[in-house]
Amino acid sequence: MSTPTQPLDFAGIDSLLDEEEIAVRATTRRFVDDQIRPNIANWFEAGTVPARELAPELGKLGLLGMHLEGYGCAGLSATSYGLACMELEAGDSGLRSLVSVQGSLAMYAIWKYGSEEQKTEWLPRMAKGEAIGCFGLTEPDYGSDPGGMRTRARRDGEDWILTGNKMWITNGSIADVAVVWAQTDDGIRGFVVPTDTAGFSAPEIKKKMSLRASITSELVMDSVRLPASAVMPGAKGLSGPLGCLNEARFGIVFGALGAARDCLAAALTYVGERQLYGQALASYQITQTKLADMSVELTKGMLLALHLGRLKDGGGLDHRQISLGKLNNVREALAIARECRTLFGAAGITLEYPMMRHANNLESVLTYEGTSEVHQLILGQALTGHAAFR
């Protein structure tokens, strides 16, 4: 019997990574193995995660805002960031979401569009995990159509009065600062909102069946008074929040594959040990065809992710290419998680193994940062020249 040297890397992708990328991946993997894997099943079952305690540890590793320059951020490559996301999501999508929302949404928004005062006040603390951020764009009735948001900010002398609701906000209930997007007389603008401001609240959303090891909240702004300095000067219109979403989507292109890889790794171990009719489950043709097909899709997804990482590092990544990666890799990761589950029989539905947890989580990943349908229409418009969103 022969086995490949690295059954999860048939294409030899490791040979395409440089030393820094391999080091970032290894450091993140060790953190996940030591701090996340021993606890994740219990956190998922309990519907909670000690995000406040984890954030400083993630900050010490340089994983928060790691692809940003200055202000205490690590300034690493996009590819290194993607590989870190892959390892984090191999632990759990909720952990990757914590890091992604902190770095690619909240921190990136302030870093890209904020004033110097906003950057110096928040980014160093957020990079250390001493302050946690959230990103308020989605509303109860406006997810895929953020331009229709009802949250509004109006001028009152030199101040702004912010009123509205945001929904499905990761980190919301534990955040120290919220980046909130609102309609104004001057179009959509972004606001940096300390969460201890009067009129701001963030009730946590309970009874989730997905992303249970993650804090998900509603944001409620009841006539929140903000100074003029709360506005991010560099963003006007939807291009601001959509630019942030592209950063988060890029991380998902890599991250979803971490969940898929974790499922496939568990399956390979299980079928080698499980005996059926007097021989290993791994020896049956149906088992092997399933494993082969999943390995092919995982490999294709990893090659696509790495290529997009190289394009981003070279400054040539288009948002439609990110849509291509997010659409394919999340869709295939979910299919791999489901197919792996079939190899475990009844055992596959328990938290002893990771497949159902990953599959449940990936149902959310399939939806957030742009649904699959939205990404299909982005690609459809690129292919045909016709916008079919309405």
Structure, explained:
- The protein contains eleven helices and nine strands.
- It is α+β, with helices and mostly antiparallel strands.
- It has three domains: 13-128, Orthogonal Bundle (Butyryl-Coa Dehydrogenase, subunit A, domain 1), CATH 1.10.540.10; 133-230, Beta Barrel (Butyryl-CoA Dehydrogenase, subunit A, domain 2), CATH 2.40.110.10; 241-384, Butyryl-CoA Dehydrogenase, subunit A, domain 3 (Up-down Bundle), CATH 1.20.140.
- A four-stranded antiparallel sheet has the order 2-3-7-6, covered by helices on one side.
- β4 (177-184) and β5 (187-194) form a beta hairpin.
- The termini are far apart.
- The model has no long low-confidence stretch (mean pLDDT 96).
